[in-house]
Amino acid sequence: FSFSWQTTFQDGGEEVEDGAVYNVTLKKVQIQQAANKGARWLGGEGDQLPPEHTVRQYETSKIRAIKAGTLEKLVENLLTAFGDADFSYISIFLATYRAFASPRAVLELLLDRFGNLETSSHGEVANLNSLESEMVLRAEIASVLRAWLDQCSEDFREPPDYMCLLKLLDYLKNNMPNSDMESRVQNLLKQFQNQEVEAVDGFCSTSSSGLVDGEELEISNPEEFSSFQDHVVAEQLTYMDVMLFRRVVPYHCLGSIWSQRDKKENKNLAPTIRATITQFNAVTKCVISTILGTRELKIQQRAKIIEKWINIAHECRILKNFSSLRAIISALQSNSIYRLKTTWMFVSKDVLLLYEELSEIFSDHDNYLTSRELLMKEATSKFANLDSSEKENQKKSQKRLQLQKTKGVMQGTVPYLGTFLTDLIMLDTALQDYVEGGLINFEKRRREFEVIAQIKLLQSSCNSYCLIPDQKFIQWFRRQRHLTEEESYKLSREAEAAADTNILSPKSQKSMVKRISTLFLGTDVFTPPKEQSPKSSPVGGSSGESTDSASVSSCEFNHSETEDVCVTPVSSPEDPLKKSSVGSDKGYDSDKGSISSDKGSSSKGSISDPGSGSDSGSIPSRDPVPGSAPRMLPVYNRQSEGSCIIRVSMDGLQDSVYKSILITNQDRIPDVTQRALLKHNLEPDAVEDYELVQVISEDKELVFPRDANVFYGMNSHVNFDFVLRKKA
Fold first, then answer.
1. Which CATH number describes the domain made up of 72-117+134-195?
2. Which residues fall within 8 angstroms of residue 662, CB to CB, at 6 or more apart?
3. What residue ranges of the chain are covered by domains with CATH 1.20.870.10?
4. What is the pLDDT, as a whole number, of residue 640?
5. Residue 348 confidence (pLDDT) above 60
6. Could you tell me the CATH superfamily of domain 228-490?
7. Disulfide engineering: 15 pairs with which of 22, 91, 554, 571, CB 3.0-4.6 Å?
8. CA 369, 372, 373 angle in degrees (round to 5)?
9. Angular region, 353: left φ>0, alpha ψ -120 to 50, beta rest
10. Which of 247-256, 594-603, 708-717 bottoms out in mean pLDDT, i.e. has the lowest?
11. Residue limits of the Ras-associating domain (predicted)?
12. Under a CB-based contact definition with an 8 Å cutoff, are residues 273 and 292 in contact?
């Protein structure tokens, strides 16, 4: 006999139970069966029977995926998910439950309510006899606990008491004595007890923060920096990035977790993310200090250092390290560096072309489609997939790649974490936590898990790296004294004063400094001051709720705060070989959600305003959960299906920091005002004291009446940027 299968899926609607709603998908499998023996006698070719002699059988099964439910139902579903053919449920729940519950609450429900072999009312085993019930329930509990320990053992790190781990150990001793699970939990408890509680600096053991004293810091010696080979620098930066990225706890990236970092009680929230950001900033600061830190450098020498950093960025690209690659590119596009027109003219043509190609990786076109596709393409590939339009650069890339392949060492991929953080922030802003009846919206968690799964995949790929730390370079890297905003700007002016006739000093601009906790892909957007830019070559970076709408660099800092970072205009230096291409007003591009302007620029070079960056880009579309209908999420700068996302800043209070707010066609001024006050950590009862204003242009604004409908009253042809202003 021969068999063939054909599977089709059909939407089976919803099933509602007490405390839960399920999406139902009908899986229909068509089985074709034929007796091959004698097929030719029956007129078939070879062993294939004609259609009229094929027997078709149909088999239909039901797949239930929980859509929303109470915490009790979601925990109970951990035990029934396999029976419902929802095979990914346990992983999704464990990766996202911290957004709506604590480990203790979940563990108590799992063990006390559903894990009690005497009193459990778990429906799946209700009709089995007592012994079978006990065996089935024990196997289900063990399966969930095993997955929990495998995937999220950090959930049990609760020094000094370790209450959850002790509760779990007590349960295992009573219900599964002498099991492998019991031994495993005991070992984990000992491991946690023997380890010191890791603070933020513990996660950043290879970065510069907290590892040097002020008196030991020094301005980079150009000769010492030049002594390090380009590939060595790239390898060491990759080594540090890999160590930190592998330690990232995925649930720290969730929008509902990361967006709470501004609160005083959460200053130590998400330390693994903060450590990664600190390293990113340290790289950008190092680039700035090596270029500007030594006053005695001649223009040609400074150009050589820029060339060296571009070559290091290229080596990072070969190593598939997109984090340090982006940090270097962002630093080279900082205010203090890109204004050095004369210096850039001494950078060789080949290196400039290489720089443009590397910058293009982070183009904001189509919601950073290039960098997203490249990241996913190389996530599991052994080596980088390099392609260059310039022959010399192509030869160089292939030569380095061939050397890597000759060594036979596979490579992982280090992503720019900001891309994932923005996606998760946008999801958190666009989707509700609870649905009708107060049920937890688990569809939202499924969408979030699609992003978390990509992070986990890349973390796994990082195990392929085989890099050895070079203590000489690491010590040099740690010793670097990072320039403040004022210092870097002053040194840049000293190097090339004439280039700045139309650029305001930092003191007269809006502050470029923003705490990392409110900048790096939170629910905020930081709009940098508009500055002259000789040439537009958008390179994204970390911004607020936008999808990588601004570049992050470490060029302008408040040195008193180690987690400060600045956003710089997204532009690149003028290519002296392409001066004729500089110039026109680009205006607003509704497809990209970006705005360009040459106001205040004598060179008519357009600049791309990161503050109005690519928020219009929606969350990347992914396969929907079986049985659920895909829908367009609300996005910035576009009204869709009666909702959209606006950005609201406080007039006179951090006026360069935006908070993203979801509004619908039902929202009126008091509702939006109250939400904006809450987002800015202000008293929500003071609604009557504020007025909401939409910024139309530099000299025009739209003031809303007291009870206006914001969705219908707003101007949808300009940026969705609003200001909350105290009434006179």
1. 1.20.870.10
2. 429, 430, 634, 643, 644, 645
3. 72-117+134-195
4. 83
5. yes
6. Ras guanine-nucleotide exchange factors catalytic domain (1.10.840.10)
7. 22
8. 85
9. alpha
10. 594-603
11. 642-728
12. no
Fold of 638-726: Ubiquitin-like (UB roll) (3.10.20)
Q: What phi, psi does 69 have (nearest 5°)?
A: -175, 170
Q: Which residue shows structure tokens 């920096």?
A: 225
Residue 722 has pLDDT above 90, yes or no: yes
- Residue 284's identity, in one-letter code, is T
Query: Helices (H) and strands (E) in the chain — how many of each?
Result: 25, 17
Strand blocks (E) in 418-512: 434-435, 439-441
Range(s) within the chain of domains with CATH label 3.10.20.90:
638-726
User: Are the beta carbons of 532 and 293 closer than 8 angstroms?
Assistant: no
Q: Can you tell me the distance from the alpha carbon of 158 to that of 163, in angstroms, rounded to the nearest whole number?
A: 7
Tokens representing 689? 């004291």
Q: Return residue ranges of the chain for CATH 1.10.840.10.
A: 228-490
Report the distance separating Cα 332 and Cα 475, nearest Å: 23
∠ CA 449-384-233, rounded to 5°: 100
The answer to whether 176 and 182 are in contact (CB under 8 A) is: yes
136-138-139-141 Cα dihedral, nearest 10 degrees:
120
Highest mean pLDDT: which range of 103-117, 143-157, 192-206, 652-666: 143-157
Q: How far is CA 561 from CA 506, 515, 556, 607, 640, in A?
A: 18, 8, 12, 29, 40
Q: Which two tokens stand for residue 83?
A: 């029976």
Residue range 58-67: average pLDDT? 83
3-state secondary structure of 670: helix
Asked if residue 101 lies in contact with residue 66, where contact means CB atoms within 8 angstroms, the answer is no
Predicted confidence at residue 265, as pLDDT, reads: 78
**End-to-end alpha-carbon separation of the chain, Å?**
86
Question: Model confidence at 484, in pLDDT bands (50, 70, 90)?
Answer: confident
Backbone phi, psi, residue 207, to 5°: -90, 180
Q: Is the dihedral of CA 69, 621, 88, 426 positive or negative?
A: negative
* Angle in degrees, CA 124, 126, 132, rounded to 5: 85
For the CA atoms of 637, 641, 643, 647, the dihedral, rounded to the nearest 10 degrees, stands at -10
Instruction: Return the pLDDT at 291.
Output: 94
Residue 191: both structure tokens together? 């491991």
From the list 657, 536, 592, 639, the residue with the least C-alpha distance to 262 is: 657
